[in-house]
Design a protein that fits this description.
By secondary structure, the chain is of the alpha+beta class. The protein contains eleven helices and 18 strands.
Length: 565
């Protein structure tokens, strides 16, 4: 009867895992593995974004600010000519501008290779039939030039020459509604920050008070750096000094449930994905209305609107902005703008993760290899926690030494649970063993190692970083699954060194959980697996050393004996 019940429980457990896996696939926008019929509604929100530009935000009212709507301000005059794309190159960028609005519709990061295309550089901003991710600006509050208005590229160099520190790219609109907009992008050598100056010229006969909007437009598709067992945030974010860093899910925008600081005089709006980000930064002290909205079925924007002072006829007004487009390099982000480093999200363990990243970076500066830097960092952490671990392992060794007595006593008193408990506590007192003595020291260290996990997962430095031999990219899984296999073996050895719980069911779970955990690591980035292997090996070495000092024989438990009954 027990065997039948056990079999039923295993069937239920297995079926539950299948259902959870299918739901996880659907949650991440992928086709279900086991129940394809359930995919009929899942991908609806994940269709590729249309190539058409986003509609213009609606102007805000000074007395009653409103979230920008979808209504577009029509351009004056005859239909605009066909849009023309212009390419500009610096030492870090290959940028594509569109004559329609002078928008930035392409940004290739020349110093960051694409994992999908081998040696080809990584393209962050793009506009095509499969993917939309662009940066736009324009004027609202009247029939003014918007990102839909045709603009002319003024003559100038298209690449940053040797010895040149900056390059200016200038677009100028025609007279639209009595206003002309001149937009100047200034690109600097070695910088992922683009200065964007907007000069608004009143060519009419009456004063105008336009509003400048800056926005990032992106489809809601996840990046292809995800794996089935971990998911990083992709979507808009807002930072202000009052509310700090606020992430916004695409689904929250769709459901009109997005909450963030809308009125501010500092901060930024950003579009975040794994390893990379883009952000619009208006000058500190500039009043703005932040907004996040859904433009189309799977197209979203995050932006800010700022009101310019009244401009008299024949006069002009200039407002500057900055656009960051690049990798989440912590030092670069920190020096670009206050709070921008928060786009590299460590979650609730930031206070621990940031010092760990600092130490990891210092070690890398010494060894010159991120893989060996990970190994040395784990060695330093294990050394720092050596005495704490030693206390835990001594407790475990004592438990393992008295485990035969506990098992014999449980078998002898299995029909008398109350007496069994009393006898067990008596043995613990006689041998001066605390059953929880091996848990508390390890629990204290768990936040540190979870924080290190997030450091390795979030750091763009791991991307395309080799370790040795076949490991050419620490941010992707081991192509031959050697590291995950080694990690599984070390996990088995480490589990075998631990004392088994007296309860047979708990003993089985003690073996099953680490093995199930190891399976996930076959899909994890090689850098994370390397970190875990190093931790396992050092743990095994310390535990074996303490066992030998205490005279506990190095006996490896055979897990197969636990599952025969």
């Amino acid at each position: 009867m027990n065997d039948i019940r056990r079999s039923i429980l295993w069937v239920v457990f297995g079926f539950s895992m299948v259902l959870i896996w299918d739901k996880w696939q659907i949650h991440n926008g992928k086709a279900p593995t086991f129940f394809p019929s359930s995919a009929a509604t899942a991908p609806a929100e994940q269709k590729a974004a249309p190539a058409a530009d986003a509609s213009v935000p609606a102007a805000t009212s000074a007395s009653a600010p409103s979230v920008p709507g979808a209504a577009a301000a029509p351009d004056a005059g005859a239909p605009a000519p066909a849009a023309v794309r212009h390419e500009v190159t610096t030492d870090v960028f290959k940028l594509t501008f569109n004559s329609e609005g002078g928008s930035l519709i392409g940004a290739t990061l020349l110093q960051h290779a694409s994992k999908q295309l081998g040696s080809e550089p990584f393209q962050l901003l793009v506009q095509n039939d499969q993917h939309t991710y662009i940066a736009q600006t324009g004027l609202i509050g009247g029939s003014f030039p918007t990102h839909k208005t045709s603009m002319t590229l003024l003559p100038g160099p298209a690449s940053l020459a040797d010895g040149q520190d900056s390059l200016a790219v200038k677009f100028e609109s025609a007279d639209v509604g009595g206003v002309k907009l001149v937009k100047t992008y200034t690109l600097k050598r070695g910088s992922y920050t683009i200065d964007v100056a907007h000069e608004v010229v009143n060519t009419g006969t009456a004063p105008v008070t336009p509003q400048l909007y800056v926005q990032l437009v992106r489809d809601g598709n996840k990046t292809d750096s995800e794996t089935p067992f971990y998911s990083t945030f992709t979507g808009p974010a807002v930072y202000t000094s009052a509310q700090k860093y606020q992430k916004i899910e695409f689904g929250q925008i769709t459901d009109n449930k997005a909450t963030f600081e809308k009125s501010a005089t500092d901060g930024y709006v950003a579009m975040v994905q794994h390893y990379f980000t883009s952000a619009w930064l208006l000058p500190e002290g500039t009043a703005r209305e932040n907004f996040a909205r859904r433009i189309d079925n799977n197209l979203f924007s995050i932006g800010a609107i700022s009101t310019l002072p009244a401009i008299a006829p024949g006069q002009s007004q200039k407002i500057d902005a900055r656009l960051f487009v690049g990798p989440q390099l912590e030092k670069v982000l920190e020096t670009t703008a206050p709070g921008l480093e928060l786009v590299k999200d460590y979650g609730w363990l930031t206070i621990i993760a940031k010092p760990l990243y600092w130490l990891l970076e210092k070690i890398h500066g010494f060894v010159g290899n991120w893989g060996w830097a990970i190994v040395l960092l784990v060695v330093l952490l294990k050394a720092a926690f050596y005495w704490l671990n030693a206390s835990a392992y001594r407790s475990m060794a004592k438990m393992k030494a008295i485990n035969p007595r506990i098992m014999e006593m449980r078998e002898r008193l299995k029909n008398n649970p109350q007496l069994m408990q009393q006898e067990m506590m008596k043995i613990y007192r006689e041998e001066k063993v605390n059953p929880l003595g091996g848990c508390f020291p390890i629990l204290i260290q768990i936040p540190v190692f979870i924080a290190l996990y997030w450091v390795l997962l979030s750091s763009v430095e791991m991307r395309n970083a080799p370790w040795m031999g076949w490991i050419t990219d620490l941010s992707t899984k081991d192509p031959f699954y050697v590291l995950p296999f080694v990690m599984t073996l070390t996990t088995i050895v480490q589990t075998a060194l631990n004392p088994l719980p007296p309860d047979p069911l708990q003993a089985k779970m003690m073996w099953l959980m680490p093995l199930m955990f190891s399976v996930m690591f076959f899909f994890f980035p090689a850098g994370l697996v390397l970190y875990w292997i190093t931790n396992n090996l050092l743990t095994i070495a310390q535990q074996a050393y303490i066992n030998s000092k205490m005279g506990v024989p190095l006996k490896i438990t055979n897990p197969l004996t636990l599952f025969k009954s």
